[in-house]
Amino acid sequence: RFVLADVKVRPSGWVQTAHDVTIEIEGSKKPALTARWLTLTLIERQPETA
What distance in Å separates the CA atoms of residue 50 and residue 44, rounded to the nearest whole number? Predict the structure, then answer.
């Protein structure tokens, strides 16, 4: 399961997203894994044409 936890736009133009991740084992009370997944994305803008 991925849940979006945070989105930040950096002054440099990069967008940082954080997802809280849980991987469960069927029939188990405890998850197999919990993590925070960070991603950086650069969104380049196209020059505007008149």
Answer: 19
